[in-house]
Amino acid sequence: MANYQFRNTGYSDYDSAVDAARLNPKPTTGLEDVNAAGTTTSDIVYQGVDPDQSQTFTGANQFWIEDDGRQIWQVAADGGILSVQSMPAWDCSDPLDFGYIGEDPSGSGENTEGDVIAITYGTNVKNTNEPSLIEVRLGSDATGQVVQDATTSTGFVFGENTYRVKFSLPSGWSGQDLDGNKACVQTNVTVVQNDPLYDCDVAGPTINSGTHGDPVVVQWAVAPADNTWVVTPSTLIPGSAYTITGIEVPAGYSNNGGAAIQCQIDANDVTVATTTLAAFDCTAAAINISPGLPGDNVAANTTVAAGITISSISPAVFSSNPGTNSYTVNIQVPATGYSNSGQILVCSADATTGTVTKTISLNNTSNLTFDSTGTPIQTKIVTIEGNATGFSTGTHIQYTAGSNSWLNVSLDNFTTSGGNLQFSANAYTGAQPRSVTVN
């Protein structure tokens, strides 16, 4: 039995026995500890005028005693009990007592799936004298699923449901259930669904098994919004982890429209078969150099297998020596798929240097005429076709001397100048005219 005497000073809002019983914590200022007759302890006593619980306290010679917040006892000055009256019963349907759970049903707020279930009590609940929550169950009876208690925080369940709230009744009310607590039921509580977060657990990326060097193939439990994501490395490598960046969040998730996410796949989660890769060789390069003439560019006459790149060729031009000559061709090995990928492969290839044809065009076939009195030396000029700069009178002129004893001609009589061949004949003087036929 709790005994409190209430002196009205400073507590005008709580000047009835019921209001006083609902104070928590109980006031200490303005209260007086007395040893009322008939009580076993020296506690503070509520003091009133008559059995009416709504009476204000005047300091008269009668006492109101609160019994655990459930009853008001009227005690005479000599300790006799004048009356025992119950506190008002807690009314679950009275919004001034219970109020509501979650968002105000008359307001615009929403109860969201998974949110903690908050309880708003009515204005009859004073200060911090609130009920102590024991549990919240789904449904209207004590057999429903517990969605919130000291160890469970499931919270609101999606849909329109009924919830049963069980709590310990605070002082100032009566009307407990059989177990000494109180349970209130609220129906038609609407709970909206909370869009889940799109993260790596939801996206669930996995990488297909394969062989070392194969392209990485990613599978998704929930695919991203688009295919702009990038996986690094992009080929399967034994013992390597993989990072996927730029994963755009799809619609239907709370972080849709926000920053892209990034996921990591551990090496232990990817099966990569190891094989011995073959080396890329000169045969695979399929080098072919077509014949060329001296001084021609060798690269222009060179072909290789599709996808292969020539790094350099030495010598860069065809040799001046006719016939077969050897050239060094440096090949860039493809970046993946070979044991020597990315390296420079040095190969050798033969090519034929062709012979330049040199001809003399006799565009001047008039005879060389010598008279008996004229200058004995006559000159004939014809045009060289072909490689004039490589023309050699000693190599490319064949001359057969005639039987005329009066004509002095040899290979020394042939000279070249500016692409022309000049022929000079020296005739011995004589008494009669003579001529040389050029054809």
Structural description of this entry:
This protein is mainly beta. It folds into five domains: 5-86, no CATH class; 100-192, no CATH class; 200-273, no CATH class; 282-353, no CATH class; 359-436, no CATH class. Helix content is 4%, strand content 35%. It is built from four helices and 33 strands. It has a five-stranded mixed beta sheet, with no helix packed on it. A hairpin with a 7-residue loop joins strand 11 (132-138) and strand 12.
Give the structure's gist in a few sentences.
This protein has four helices and 33 strands. It is mainly beta.
Question: Keywords, please?
Answer:
439 residues; mainly beta; 5 domains; five-stranded antiparallel β-sheet; 33 strands; disordered N terminus; disordered C terminus
Rounded mean pLDDT is 74
Q: How large is the share of residues in beta strands?
A: 25-35%
Number of strands: 33
What structural category characterises the helix and strand content? mainly beta
What Rg do the Cα atoms give? 58 Å
Count of alpha and pi helical runs: 4
Q: What are the segments in which pLDDT stays under 50 over at least 5 consecutive residues?
A: 1-15, 26-61, 431-439
The number of distinct structural domains comes to 5
Shape: rod-shaped
Note the gap between the termini.
153 Å
Most strands sheet: 5 strands, mixed
- What's the arrangement of strands in the largest beta sheet? 9-14-13-11-12
Tell me roughly what share of residues is in helical segments. Answer: under 10%
